[in-house]
Amino acid sequence: MDSHGRDAATLTGRIDRLDVRIHAFVPEPDREGRLAAEASAAAARWPDAAARPPLYGIPVGVKDIVHAAGLDTRAGSALPPEALAGEEATVVRRLKDAGALVAGKTVTAEFAVLAPGPTRNPHDPGHTPGGSSSGSAAAVAAGAVPLAIGTQTVGSMIRPAAYCGVTGFKPTYGRIPMDGVIANAPSFDTLGVYAADVAGVALAAAAVCDDWRPVAPGGGLPVLGVPGGPYLRCAGSEALDAFDAHVGLLREAGFEVRRVPVMDDFEQIRAQLFTMNRYEVARTHAGWFAEYSALYRPETVAAIREGQAVTAREYARAVRERADFQDRVASAASAHGVDLWVTPAATGPAPRGLATTGSSVMCLPWSHAGLPSLCVRTRRAGRLPMGLQLVGGRGADERLLAWAPALEAAVAEPGRR
């Protein structure tokens, strides 16, 4: 066996060993053979070790709504894969062009909506890993792969990152092309990346985002804004206590933190998003649902039926209200001199049980606004992890990731700084 075969066998063995417990990967009949062939092809493409690209040889998990050549896309569903087939996604091609190897497809909630997949939280298999990018977050948290691709429509990147204790990055809406990805709600769907830390996320972001222009660290610390009002009160007491402790650590590290009154109409904002979301879900699935409705799980059926009940006029009004909300968030940040918003990444630690994927409400307004979001790992207040969510300005993804290491260090577990 050559070195590529040995590496493929090692990776496959690690995935198989861990997946008995966490079920993060979609089963694949000859993962080892495929990986050995991909590794050999990469070595032939870049024979000069000094000229190899930044992700050379790094295995990446790919959420199973993202098309990758040679692998079926099932989207966590019972639909025949030939009905869902499509061309390889640009994000996968960019990963391969950066030298990465596709370790396999990672489990998703059915069609990235609500119905959970079989993945379990690596910290306690009796708890959810979050969703819908459950397999991607859990695979990185368990150490099966160092990098994984997910998507977020409302909270599907940031919440699993918090529950699983990894770093998750959702760029500005539209920053990574969405071709080759099965849609949920196209006005919100955004590809993102998971890694163990900010440095890993930044390396991947530079490879997959459009027109990435790295920003050099320096220029002082960002001013942090805490959104006051009904939004923050959606978090549970455990999350709020941990968040208060994290804010205290940030102040000790020299960050200025300002509490900003914003989103007093949070319930209306939530309604706007779900009006748009459900309307778009129903239209995304119109053809498939007409033919295969009996194969859909009840949670997805309910979401589609809700969307079918939304009128075109209601949808158009929600679109207008969303544009106004986006302007208001930007204006509030500008008026108060806020560079980054900081919030709990989830309403609390991962809930017990696997019947749901938890609440996405802490991510909801930022997804609605299309802003770049990052979950960084924090010191634990209890047995399960809880992350800190950082939200940047529209298009300021590079600046967010340049500032993030200082915040990451401030709230990290002792010994991880």
UniProtKB/TrEMBL annotation:
Q: Which InterPro entries does this chain map to?
A: Amidase, Amidase_dom, AS_sf
Q: Which organism is it from?
A: Streptomyces albidochromogenes
Q: What is this protein called?
A: Amidase
List, for all copies, the residue spans of the domain called Amidase.
14-213, 242-401
Q: Which domain of life is it from?
A: Bacteria
The segments labelled Disordered in the record are: 115-137
- Membrane-spanning intervals of the chain: none
SUPFAM superfamilies from the UniProt entry: Amidase signature (AS) enzymes
